[in-house]
């Protein structure tokens, strides 16, 4: 319903998410497309090319806000963004995301 592309200054990410009422089970999908994907900008008119897509499926609206806060905070770090973008394996992506986002999310909650 709303645009989710975010220009980070050093790269671009899209964070599509659904309303919690439509989610059966919480999960996060990290998608690294071979070529960037156009997304409508969340902060401005027009499109940007997202190099990472982090799709959120959250069942608790309050938890979604905590997760988004932790995610936005971490994505401001260019090293973190590049670590996700350049991770060579699923395990590397999972480890990076878990240590920076999920652990931070538990601290925020």
TrEMBL record:
GO molecular function, one term: transferase activity
Domain PTS EIIA type-2 residue range list: 1-100
Enzyme superclass (EC): transferase
Key words of the record: Transferase
EC number assigned by the record: 2.7.1.-
SUPFAM superfamilies in alphabetical order: Phoshotransferase/anion transport protein (SSF55804)
Domain of life: Bacteria
InterPro entries: PTrfase/Anion_transptr, PTS_EIIA_type-2_dom, PTS_SugarTrans_NitroReg
Protein name, UniProt field: PTS system galactitol-specific IIA component
């Amino acid at each position: 319903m709303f645009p989710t592309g975010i220009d980070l200054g050093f790269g671009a990410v899209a964070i599509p998410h659904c309303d919690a009422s439509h989610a059966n089970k919480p999960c996060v999908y990290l998608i690294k497309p071979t070529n960037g994907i156009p997304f409508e900008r969340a902060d401005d008119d027009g499109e940007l090319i997202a190099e990472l897509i982090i799709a959120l499926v959250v069942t608790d609206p309050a938890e979604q806000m905590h997760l988004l806060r932790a995610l936005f905070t971490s994505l401001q770090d260019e090293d973190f963004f590049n670590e996700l973008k350049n991770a060579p394996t699923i395990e590397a992506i999972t480890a990076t995301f878990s240590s920076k986002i999920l652990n931070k999310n538990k601290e925020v909650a």
